[in-house]
Write a structure and sequence with these properties.
- The protein is an alpha/beta fold.
- It is about 50% helix and about 10% strand.
- Among the domains are: about 250 residues, Rossmann fold, CATH 3.40.50.300; about 180 residues, Rossmann fold (3-Layer(aba) Sandwich), CATH 3.40.50.300.
- Helix 2 packs across helix 7.
- It is globular, with a radius of gyration of 38 Å.
- It binds adenosine-5'-triphosphate.
- The site of adenosine-5'-triphosphate has 19 residues, from strand 3 and helix 14.
- Adenosine-5'-triphosphate (ATP) binds next to strand 3 and helix 14.
C-alpha cells in the first residue's frame, strides 16, 4: 500500500486520476453491496438467534467492539480521495519486495490473503449464501479491479528502487506491528480492491478478537481418578493380622514368629485384594475370569514388600509341579537380594523355591538354580524368581528350558523406575516370554496360555493361566500414558497420595499426577549454605550435634569418594562409603556394618536411595541436593520407616534454594523447615578442616598415581 501512496509523489497524475475514478466507482458499488448484505443479514438474524459480534449490523466487527470495522471504513470512504491517500501514507508504509507486494496485492485482489483466507474460511458457510447472490456483480467488479491492480503493480515496480531505503528504516516497526498493520492494510485498500470481497467477507475485516482458549482437561481413567485410599498414618491404623480374612494359618504363624502382630495399612488392603484375585487358585482368576492388575503407590517404609510376599506365597502353597509362577523384577542387586530374603523367610518349610538372579553368581551357577535337564525334558527348579532386568533377559534368551509360560504373577517393584526406558524393554521381553509356548519342558498343555484377545464364547471355554501384574512404588507414576506401556488389565490402584477433591477438577487431576506422600514420622529440614561450608556443615552435624546412624547422599561416585576421604582425614567419625565403585561383597559388608551400628556415617550415591531397608537410620543428609523429586522422596525415605521417626537434612546452595523449594512444593511437600546454621558454629572446626584438606590432596594424588601405575 505504501507504494500506492508513493506513486502520488512521482507525479503520475494521469494514471492516478484514472485510479481515483475507478476507486470512486468501486466505492459506490461497494456501498450498495454492503447495504444489500446488511439487509440480508438483518433478515437472516431475525430468522435465527443473533450471533454476537458477527451480527448483521456489522457494528461489532472491530476487535475493540467499536463500530470501527466497517463503520470506520465507511467514514474513510466518505473522505476525499486525496486526503484518504495521505492518511494511508501515514498509516502504511510497509516495506515489501515488489514481488511480495504484488503477490500480496494479487491475494487482496482475489480476496484471499492468508489472514483473510483464515477468516473467510471460518465464515465460509455463512457467506456462501450471500456469495451466490452477489457473484455476478462481483465478477464484473473483480475484472475491473484486476485491471487497476495490474497498472499499479507496474508502477510499483518502478518506485520500488526509490523507496527501498526509506522503507528499510521502517521495516522493524512495521514487522512488530504486523498484526495491526494487517488490519490497517485492509482499511487502507483502495475501494476498488475492497470491492473484491463479498460483502459479508468485508465484515470480517478487523475481526481478530482473541477467542477464549479452552483449557485442555487431562483425562484420567477412572481407576486413576478414583483409587483405593490407603491410610498414611501407620501407627494409628495397624490391623491385627488375624483380622485380615483369608490368611493361611501357616503364614499367620510365620508372621508372628517374625514379630509381626499387625499389618500396616497398605498390607491390610493389598493382601486381601491379591488373595481375592486368586481365590480360584493360581490357575484361574476369580470366577474364572482374568484377574485385574494391581498398582500400589504408598510411602517409603510403609511395608509394600510384605504386601506382595504374603499373598504370593499363600497362593503358591498348593502348587503341585514346580514352575516359575512368580517373578519379581527390581532395578538393583541389593534390592533384589533384600526382597528374596523376605521371600525366603516366608517360604521356608513350604517346599517353594526362590531363586535370586542378579549376576552376583556366575551365569552357569544361576542356570543350575533355575532349570534341571531330565530325560523327560527340562524342569524348573524355582517357583519364585527375584531378578534384576539385565540378568533376567540374559536367562530368557540363553538358558535352555527356562520358561515363563506358567508365570502367574509379575511383580514390578520400584515400578516407576522400571517403566523408565532402560527397563521397559525387559518388561516387554518378560511378557513375550510368558506368552510363548513351552517347547520341551513337558508342561501341562491344558492350561497353556494364549495371548489375551477379545472375550468370546470359545475363548472363555478353555481355561487360561492368567498373568497378573502387580506394580509397587513410593512414587508410582500416575501418568496414564506411561502406565499404558505396561498394558495393564483393568487395573486397581491403591494409593496414599492425596487428591484434592474439593478443588476444581483440573487442579485435582494435575496435582494428583505430581503429588507424593512421605512417611508421617519424617521431619524435613534444609540448610541454606554455600559450597565451601558444606563439608563443615556435615562435620558440624556429626561432631557438634552428635548425629548418629547417618546416611549421607551425594550426587556422584566421585563426590562420595572425596567426601569420604575428607571425613576420614578429619578423623573422629566412623565413616564408610557406598557406591558402585566398590565390589558387591564390600558393599554388602559395609551395609551390614552400618546396620549393626558399627558405622556412624555412611556416604553413598543414589545406589542406596531406593528401597534399601536399613533399620535404625536416624538421619538422612542430602549433602548434594537431589535434582529430581523422586530422588528426594526415596532418599529421605531411608529414615522414618515402618512408622518410626526420622530426620532429613538437605544442604541447599543459596542459588538452588528457590528451585529446590519449588520442586518440593510442586510435589505437594510443604512441611520442610529452614534450619540455618550460623557461621560461628562452624568456626571451631575450620582449622582441623584445613589440615584435612591438605591430607585429602595428598591422598587423591596417591590414588591417581596408583591408578596410572
Ligand atoms: N506389619 C509390619 N509390622 C512391623 N514391621 C513391618 C511390617 N511390615 C513391614 N515391616 C517393616 O517395615 C520396614 C519397611 O518395609 P518395606 O521395606 O516393605 O517398605 P517399603 O514400603 O517397601 O519401602 P520402600 O518404598 O522404601 O521400598 C521393613 O523393615 C519391614 O520389616
Amino acid at each position: 500500500m505504501a507504494l500506492f501512496c508513493i506513486q502520488r509523489y512521482d507525479g503520475e497524475d494521469e494514471q492516478e486520476q484514472e485510479e481515483v475514478e475507478a476507486e470512486d466507482r468501486a466505492r459506490l458499488l461497494l456501498e450498495r453491496l454492503q447495504q444489500q448484505a446488511r439487509a440480508r443479514q438483518l433478515k437472516k438474524q431475525r430468522e435465527e438467534q443473533p450471533q454476537g459480534r458477527e451480527g448483521p449490523g456489522g457494528a461489532g466487527l472491530s476487535p475493540e467492539g467499536e463500530p470501527g470495522g466497517k463503520g470506520k471504513r465507511r467514514r474513510e470512504s466518505g473522505e476525499q480521495p486525496g486526503a484518504l491517500r495521505k492518511k494511508k501514507l501515514k498509516t502504511k508504509q510497509q516495506p515489501r519486495s515488489s514481488s511480495a507486494e504484488s503477490a500480496g496485492a494479487e491475494e487482496a485482489a482475489d480476496g484471499s490473503s492468508p489472514t483473510k483466507k483464515k477468516k473467510a474460511n471460518r465464515r465460509k458457510s455463512k457467506v456462501r449464501q450471500e456469495r451466490t447472490e452477489t457473484d455476478s456483480e462481483e465478477d464484473i467488479k473483480q475484472q475491473e479491479n484486476r485491471n487497476n491492480f495490474k497498472n499499479k503493480s507496474n508502477k510499483r515496480k518502478k518506485t520500488d528502487g526509490e523507496t527501498q531505503g526509506d522503507e528499510k528504516g521502517k521495516k522493524e516497526s512495521s514487522e512488530k506491528a504486523e498484526g495491526n498493520q494487517t488490519a490497517k492494510e485492509e482499511l487502507a485498500l483502495p475501494s476498488g480492491e475492497e470491492a473484491n470481497f463479498p460483502p459479508s467477507s468485508m465484515m470480517i475485516l478487523g475481526d481478530h478478537d482473541a477467542k477464549p482458549v479452552q483449557k485442555v482437561q487431562p483425562f484420567l481413567p477412572q481407576w486413576l481418578a478414583q483409587p483405593k485410599r490407603v491410610q498414611k498414618r501407620i501407627r494409628d491404623n495397624l490391623c491385627p493380622i488375624s483380622d485380615v480374612p483369608g490368611i493361611h494359618p501357616r503364614l499367620l504363624k510365620k508372621l508372628q514368629m517374625n514379630g509381626i502382630e499387625s499389618f500396616f495399612p497398605v498390607q491390610a488392603q493389598v493382601i486381601p485384594a491379591i488373595l481375592q484375585s486368586a481365590s480360584n487358585g493360581y490357575l484361574l482368576g476369580q470366577g474364572g475370569y482374568r484377574p485385574k492388575d494391581i498398582c500400589v503407590s504408598a510411602p517409603t517404609g510403609s511395608g509394600k514388600t510384605l504386601s506382595f510376599v504374603i499373598p504370593i506365597v499363600q497362593v503358591l502353597l498348593d502348587r503341585v509341579v514346580c514352575h516359575v509362577r512368580a517373578l519379581v523384577v527390581l532395578p538393583t542387586k541389593e534390592l533384589a537380594q533384600q526382597v528374596s530374603k523376605v521371600f525366603n523367610v516366608y517360604t521356608d518349610g513350604t517346599g517353594l523355591k526362590v531363586a535370586l538372579i542378579t549376576g552376583q553368581k556366575s551365569f552357569a551357577k544361576e542356570q543350575e538354580m533355575l532349570v534341571q535337564k531330565k530325560v523327560t525334558g527340562y524342569c524348573s527348579l524355582a517357583d519364585i524368581v527375584v531378578a534384576t532386568p539385565g540378568r533376567l533377559t540374559d536367562h530368557i534368551n540363553q538358558t535352555p528350558g527356562f520358561s515363563l509360560a506358567q508365570l502367574r504373577f509379575l511383580i514390578v517393584d520400584e515400578a516407576d523406575r522400571m517403566i523408565d526406558d532402560m527397563h521397559q524393554n525387559c518388561l516387554n521381553q518378560i511378557v513375550k516370554a510368558a506368552f510363548q509356548g513351552e517347547n520341551d519342558s513337558g508342561s501341562n498343555m491344558l492350561f497353556q496360555r494364549t495371548k489375551p484377545g477379545p472375550v468370546t464364547a470359545a475363548s472363555s471355554c478353555s481355561p487360561q493361566i492368567p498373568l497378573q501384574k502387580l506394580l509397587f512404588s513410593a512414587t508410582l507414576t500416575q501418568d496414564p500414558e506411561k502406565l499404558q506401556q505396561l498394558d495393564l488389565f483393568q487395573p486397581r490402584l491403591f494409593t496414599s497420595v492425596y487428591s484434592e477433591k474439593n478443588r476444581d477438577e483440573t487442579e485435582t487431576e494435575q496435582d494428583t499426577n505430581n503429588k507424593y506422600t512421605l512417611p508421617e514420622g519424617l521431619l524435613q529440614c534444609y540448610v541454606p549454605c554455600d559450597l565451601n561450608s558444606k563439608p563443615l556443615l556435615l562435620l558440624y552435624f556429626m561432631l557438634t550435634m552428635k548425629f548418629t546412624r547417618v546416611l549421607c547422599f551425594t550426587n556422584s561416585r566421585e563426590a562420595s569418594h572425596r567426601l569420604f576421604l575428607l571425613v576420614q582425614a578429619f578423623g573422629g567419625i566412623t565413616v564408610a562409603e557406598f557406591s558402585s565403585r566398590l565390589p558387591p561383597n564390600e558393599r554388602r559388608r559395609t551395609m551390614k556394618e552400618f546396620e549393626q551400628g558399627k558405622i556412624q556415617l555412611l556416604i553413598s550415591t543414589d545406589a542406596t536411595a531406593r528401597g534399601i531397608d536399613v533399620k535404625g537410620v536416624n538421619y538422612v543428609i542430602n549433602y548434594d541436593a537431589p535434582q529430581f523429586i523422586r530422588t528426594y522422596i526415596h532418599r529421605v525415605g531411608r529414615t522414618a520407616r515402618a512408622g518410626e521417626a526420622g530426620v532429613a537434612f538437605s544442604l541447599v546452595l543459596r542459588i538452588q534454594e528457590r528451585r529446590f523449594l519449588r520442586m518440593l512444593r510442586d510435589a505437594g511437600i510443604q512441611d520442610i523447615k529452614k534450619h540455618p546454621v550460623k557461621g560461628n558454629s562452624l568456626k571451631p572446626l575450620v582449622q582441623q578442616y584445613e589440615g584435612a584438606l591438605c591430607k585429602l590432596e595428598k591422598t587423591v594424588k596417591n590414588e591417581r598415581a596408583q591408578r596410572r601405575a
